[in-house]
Amino acid sequence: MEEKIKNTNYRISSAVIKRLPRYFRYLRELLEAGTMRISSGELSKMMNVTASQIRQDLNCFGGFGQQGYGYNVKYLYTKISEILGVDKEYRAVIVGAGHLGMALVGSPMFAKRGVTLAALFDNSPDLVGKDYGALHIYDAAELENYIKNNNIDIAVLTLPRAYAKETAQRLANLGIKGIWNFTNVELQFEDLGTVVQNVHIGDSLMQLTYRIGSAEEK
Amino acid sequence: MEEKIKNTNYRISSAVIKRLPRYFRYLRELLEAGTMRISSGELSKMMNVTASQIRQDLNCFGGFGQQGYGYNVKYLYTKISEILGVDKEYRAVIVGAGHLGMALVGSPMFAKRGVTLAALFDNSPDLVGKDYGALHIYDAAELENYIKNNNIDIAVLTLPRAYAKETAQRLANLGIKGIWNFTNVELQFEDLGTVVQNVHIGDSLMQLTYRIGSAEEK
């Protein structure tokens, strides 16, 4: 019996978009474990989210669930991957080859999300010219040249915050499609004219201290 | 003229809690720039959030704004710091002294949020016994001993995912108050009996690829 597939070409709210990566991770784990079908109740228990929230989220882009039958895990995973752009192939460079840049290079995260790392950049003479695994560390002065000739979509900013704005502007001028910004400087689409995703790891630390405080009050 | 301070001892929704760290960052920048008062309209422009959302969020825990007068930046910052637990002093250890652990050690993030780093742990003979800045790298086998004797509240997990669950359980058994987990293994409060904040950096990458895709469709 085929599920009815609704058209998904409409806007999904940003709250749902923020939750989708979590579904992506859980569905991937289910797939890897060979699970083909799952009910909203089981998914709810796994993810610690109410079943009604799950049904509501997944209905946002077509549902795919059937009463008493559950969700087709593979289909849902594929669909969410498409929505998130994981099925597309993007090429990225990392600008800043310090510890954070190196930690990212070593992570399987990029490959799992359809992103290929092409090169690293830094301005330190101690690092420029070296290879890190399969990746070469280029001089940051070579950014323009390299990006023009290598079809790069994404730049990951792991450099000191003092360089953030100027480097982001250079990348935007080069027509880069997206900037993944770890510098803690808030970069804005409006200023750069290119998509920016700002990472503020410290926000997560404050959520932790908040929750420790709440737990202590109980 | 004094603002009326409402009682803030009630539950704040988790959606608001997730937004508070962002207010904290912006208010801190305003304070550092010497700004004493700001209207919801100005804050709205800065933060790229609607003024009504801002009023609604800040009213959640007492408001502090006055029509035509704006918010008292210092008071709001202090209040949000209290709610987030930034005013408390926590002591933390980092378990895993690879690139990610080192990147965190080098970040001013902890000090800015009232968290003091006390030590690093690793199981690699190449690292154990070394000092990194003011921090010593201890053998991971010393965790129990060290934590019992040094009043540690928070453990930051930056070790390989294969060690995540076992190490988190050891830390929970030691009565640690909170685990900040970078391993990409989903740790649960229900399993450990201690507060866990899971960081999934890859989720942010998927939000970026989603937004690149959306921008391309326009």
Low-confidence stretches of chain A: 1-10
| Estimated radius of gyration of chain A | 20 Å
- Give the beta-strand count of chain A: 10
Question: What's the quaternary structure here?
Answer: homodimer
- Structural class of chain A, please? alpha/beta
Count of helical stretches of chain A: 10
The backbone outline of chain A, from C-alpha atoms, is globular
CATH architecture of the largest domain in chain A: 3-Layer(aba) Sandwich
Order of the strands making up the biggest sheet of chain A: 6-7-5-4-8-9-10
Greatest chain-chain interface? A-B, 56 and 55 residues
Largest sheet of chain A: 7 strands, mixed
List the helices and strands and how they pair.
The structure is a homodimer of 218-residue chains.
Chain A: H1 14-32, E1 37-38, H2 40-47, H3 51-59, E2 65-66, E3 70-72, H4 73-84, E4 90-95, H5 99-105, H6 109-112, E5 115-122, E6 131-132, E7 135-139, H7 143-150, E8 154-157, H8 164-173, E9 178-181, H9 189-192, E10 195-198, H10 201-217
